[in-house]
Amino acid sequence: MNFTHDVIVIGGGAAGLTAAGGCALFGLEVALIEAREMGGECLNDGCVPSKALIAAARRAQEARTPLRHGVMLARPRVDWRGVHAHIHAAIAAIAPHDSQERFEEMGCEVFRDWARVTGKHTVKVGKRTLSAPRIVIATGSSPAIPPIAGLAQVSYLTNETLFDLTERPEHLVVVGGGAIGMEMAQAFCRLGSAVTLVEPGELLARDDADNVAIVRRTMEEEGVRFVSGEAARVEARGDGIRLHVEKGEAIEGSHLLIATGRKPNASGFGLEEIGVEIGEGGIVVDKRRRTSLKHIYAIGDCRDGPRLTHVSGYEGSNVALEITLGLPTKVDWSALPWCTYTAPEVAQVGMTEKAARERHGDGVTVVVERFDDNERAIADGDTAGQLKLVLKGKKVLGASIVGKNAGEMLLPFSQSITGKSSTFALGSAVIAYPTRSEISKAASFTAWEPTVFGSVPKKWAQTLAKLRRRLA
After folding, report:
1. How do beta strands 171-175 and 194-199 pair?
2. Cα separations (Å) of 186 from 192, 221, 225, 311?
3. Which residue in 183, 32, 173 sits closest to 113, CA to CA?
4. Helix axes 14-25, 309-325, angle to 10 degrees
5. Dihedral angle sign, alpha carbons of residues 271, 277, 283, 285
6. S-S: 248 plus which of 114, 229, 254, 383, CB 3.0-4.6 Å?
7. How far is 248 from 257, CA to CA, in rounded Å?
8. Domain 7-38+99-143+263-325 belongs to what architecture?
9. pLDDT tens across 233-292, in order?
């Protein structure tokens, strides 16, 4: 078969851009297809705008405590148009990294249209039919909309529309207590909106429960109201909405945000017709991210697996190496990190205490270090939070951190989990003083303390001391 390209990549988000760029830099002829905005969900309505909003909210919150550390600040005045401008300025500043022009410079042929897979090696885009021996599906995900009665008859927000608001919500009702719901609930509250969050289960359910409790307490103190229950029905109420919680109250608000997770964009691209298996969680893949047709890969949010931007980039890199150099690459989630950017942040790498005990039982030990014992945190006046180090023997299974900049502190534990470092190495490292990262050294050293100061080392130290006295 005479192919038009070496590889066709469908999707211009984090996964697709990494795969396409990697293949192009190795000199392959790459077709990159994206019908919407380049950069995908993360750049346009996910990570970037949400963190820009959180930054604006943090600035407002700092001024809500007028006298601190002997410094007096004026009460904050939120200019929502300015907040909106800051969000979109951040998107615009980062957009060139993901732009069509940049990837054309790398050597990709970029198509800005919808794609449909028409055969095992062919893809139709616009009026052209492309062909390649390898195809990469990186079509991302969309907001998952729950079956709430009346939802189709009212106006509601998702992360795809939230950042286009030109006026601040008077009362934002958030359905969903995952990362998006929690981050946005706190941010809008800090920016002056009344906020009610509705969640039937656990908040941030995949994180350590003790750490989540610290975040919830902080958010409640700032004014976020939590309602436990299933969102059952919603109706229009004047210019706003009224949300009825199952076996509970009715909540009236000016705006409704649906933040109940993501669903894969797997159907509608012709994959089912050519025999690619699709399950409830998305396109079914093996550890090498190959679909049921082994020359077709699925990476990022469209496949069954974790949905995080850094995961998408990791998978894109792996697939690029496999396609270009023929190196089989398998994903390894043993040291998978994630972070929710509330204040304080909640960060996790590897297994939580709960998951570790379910798998290893009594073989698990947990070391806890609190930031109120960390001298930099004390000096900063920001001591909320803790670090939990989950161990089996001296081996790190996971680390759960809640506190300021918790996500920045995960790297050494990623290295420990994968065997590239150890608790002994981290516990004996020289770390700049005073820093919050000293808590990582303290926790790692605590794991070795019973061994270092055990009976045998003590006897040896005492023997040496006696010998020195005799020889002095």
Report:
1. parallel
2. 10, 11, 10, 25
3. 32
4. 30
5. negative
6. 229
7. 19
8. 3-Layer(bba) Sandwich (3.50)
9. 999 999 999 999 998 899 999 999 999 999 999 999 999 999 999 999 999 999 999 999
